[in-house]
Design brief:
The protein is α/β, with parallel strands linked by helices and 424 residues long. 37% of the residues lie in helices and 13% in strands. The protein has helices at 3-16, 36-48, 55-68, 79-90, 113-121, 140-146, 166-175, 227-237, 277-287, 290-309, 346-355, 372-376, 387-395, 408-418, and strands spanning 72-76, 104-108, 125-129, 151-157, 179-183, 191-192, 195-196, 203-207, 220-224, 318-320, 327-328, 334-338, 396-399.
């Protein structure tokens, strides 16, 4: 495509790319994050006819690993699939010291469905850990209380662009020979002491869903530093075959006993979790401006908090997520806790916001032991209570936090309608 043709397509994109929001939604949970260049990159792949996983996916993986500070990265079709690969890698017989069925793993009880289920599906048993009501992440005191000799893995969920004391978690995991998986699906771009989240453990997982820090529509990434782990997840991503595992090395692969890189040699169990090059092209275009997207969300978060707390209507109606010490956050969503004295008005308040065109939702999946699926699979057999996660579920909600600069008009609209809760 020459420069003239490219300019022609750019003009078409700018002309016809319009926001398709309901007239009733003024401030949505998700806003359009695609730039003209993102769309153009996707169009170039479509026009090439090579939309399945090829060179662009490999380029994205290479740039992602280099930027994040990991040796290896494997792109998949979702963050949930990244967790699935991490879980099944831990129990795979080809992995050194693989976990046996019914081994226990720790996971914060404030989490998403597919932060949990891949590890259960892999035959592991969860032990839920309560969270810190201020930063929404795993409470370190509760975490240490749950550590026993039966615990063989930790799934550290980095909530909404924030984290727990992940460096300390990593040190504990290493000293006890416990596997550590970092679910970083909500926190791409966040750092702990200048080191990116997702690089402290055996595996780090990321999501590129439409609402996340970057998006490829659907998509995700899993990173690791072990060649053994890389070969495992690379093979399992595509049916469990050995294709391209040698990657030009004609010597026998020590991990898989492959003599010839045959196209249909199935050496392991596997899935089909491959992304499209179409998704990779859009995701890579977004990833190259990750820093600016994170910065915009951070600025928007500060502006919203300032608009509310400096308003003449401000009366301590809410509190906001506290950033964990040593964390440089990558905000995702705008979580808010309602003052306890206004909780009786919560349902009325949410209905009011909906009428004013402000979308809201619960914080992640709430206190996850409350969901029917936990009872069906008897994953909380002791009927354990998690008061801090329950408080977040009872008091918490979040509104959107967009990657484009927020307008003064929207800030005023949020101020006038959020702070009305004590007047309802």
């Amino acid at each position: 495509m020459n420069s003239k043709e490219k300019k022609f397509l750019e003009n078409l994109i700018n002309k016809y790319s319009k926001k398709q929001l309901s007239k009733n939604i003024l401030y949505p949970l998700i806003d359009d994050a695609f730039s003209t260049n993102d769309i153009l990159k996707g169009m170039e792949v479509m026009l090439s006819g090579k939309i399945t996983m090829l060179e662009i996916t490999q380029q994205f993986e290479h740039e992602f690993a280099k930027h994040i500070g990991s040796k290896y990265a494997v792109m998949v079709n979702s963050g949930s699939s990244a967790n699935l690969l991490a879980a099944f890698a831990l129990v795979n017989p080809r992995k050194k010291n693989f976990l046996k069925r019914d081994s226990e793993f720790l996971i914060p009880v404030l989490c998403w469905s597919t932060s949990l289920w891949p590890f259960v599906q892999a035959g592991l048993k969860p032990k839920f850990v309560d969270v810190d009501v201020n930063n929404f992440n795993m409470d370190m005191h509760e975490f240490e209380k749950k550590l026993t000799s039966k615990v063989k893995a930790i799934v550290a969920v980095h909530v909404l662009g924030n984290s727990t004391q992940i460096e300390e978690v990593g040190k504990i995991a290493k000293s006890r020979n416990i596997f550590l998986v970092e679910d970083t699906c909500e926190s791409l771009g966040a750092k702990y002491k200048k080191r990116y989240l997702g690089t402290f453990g055996d595996f780090g997982t990321y999501s590129f869903f439409y609402s996340h820090q970057i998006t490829s529509g659907e998509g995700g990434m899993i990173v690791c530093n072990s060649k053994e782990d890389y070969d495992l997840i690379y093979s399992m991503r595509s049916h469990g075959w050995s294709r391209k595992l040698n990657r030009g090395n004609k010597k026998k692969n020590a991990n898989f006993n492959i003599v010839n890189d045959t196209s249909f040699n199935f050496i392991n169990s596997g899935f089909n979790l491959r992304p499209l090059d179409l998704s990779a092209a859009i995701g890579l275009s977004q990833f190259r401006r990750l820093n600016s997207l994170v910065q915009n969300r951070s600025i928007n978060r500060k502006k919203i908090i300032s608009q509310l707390t400096h308003s003449p209507l401000w009366n301590q109606q809410f509190s906001f997520l506290e950033i964990t010490k040593n964390i440089k956050p990558s905000p995702f969503g705008m979580p808010i806790l309602i003052n306890k004295k206004h909780l009786s008005k919560k349902e009325q308040f949410f209905n009011f916001l909906k009428k004013q065109g402000i979308e809201t939702r619960i914080v992640i999946g709430g206190n996850f032991v409350n969901h029917p699926s936990i009872k069906i699979y008897n994953l909380n057999s002791k009927n354990e209570n998690f008061p801090k996660a329950q408080e977040i579920e009872d008091r918490g909600f979040y509104i959107g936090l967009h990657p484009k600069p927020i307008s003064n008009k929207i800030l005023k609209h949020l101020e006038e309608n959020l702070l009305i809760i004590d007047k309802l």
